[in-house]
Design brief:
The chain has helices at 2-28, 34-48, 50-63, 70-98, 102-120, 125-142, 145-171. The chain is an all-alpha fold and 179 residues long. The longest helix is centred in the middle third of the chain and has 29 residues, at 70-98.
Length: 179
């Protein structure tokens, strides 16, 4: 199981890192806005996290003779998701700390996007001021690498957990995609 978890988790994590680099490049070249980058990001995460399903299936078929309990599938899937999430969060840390101006501009752009969205939705200046204060507090916390790493893990791991549990539920049935 260790090899399957490491291989599928690493591949998923590296692919997600490459896709978030692509999304930042697309944003810098006005092919993707800050607002719809979330949709792009989560869509690509779901697609890449389908590797969890393939990893669980590989474990079931190649190591458990085509028969697997929900628990064994969940454990394998969760471990793959954890490895992928660690790669993703580590990739963001490298990007955040090495690419010029990202550290200085990321949270300011995030705040600007939120304020713009609130104005578009008709929020009062009082609500906007409250949101700005909240986001400025978050920007201070975001300077802490442990907080930032944890926030990045929380961005992706729950999605991986859901995919892992769904995969385990589907693949515990030996007649689903038999080897």
């Amino acid at each position: 199981m260790r090899k399957i978890v490491l291989v599928y988790g690493s591949i998923a994590g590296i692919l997600m890192d490459l896709l978030f680099l692509l999304s930042f490049w697309m944003m810098q070249n006005d092919m993707l806005s800050f607002e719809n980058s979330e949709l792009f990001g989560y869509t690509t995460m779901i697609i890449v996290l389908s590797l969890i399903f393939m990893g669980v299936k590989s474990y079931r078929d190649n190591h458990l003779n085509g028969v697997m309990t929900f628990g064994a599938g969940a454990k394998t899937g969760i471990l793959i998701a954890a490895i992928a999430a660690l790669f993703y969060a580590g990739g963001w840390e490298v990007y955040y700390n090495t690419v010029p101006n990202v550290r200085e501009t990321f949270m300011a752009r995030y705040e600007e996007m939120n304020v713009k969205k609130m104005r578009h939705e008709g929020a009062t200046e009082e609500k906007i001021a409250e949101k700005r204060a909240e986001l400025q507090k978050m920007a201070e916390w975001y300077k802490n690498p442990f907080f930032r790493f944890g926030m990045t893990l929380v961005e992706i791991f729950p999605l991986g957990l859901v995919v892992a549990l769904i995969s385990a539920g589907i693949l515990r049935k030996k007649n689903v995609l038999p080897a």
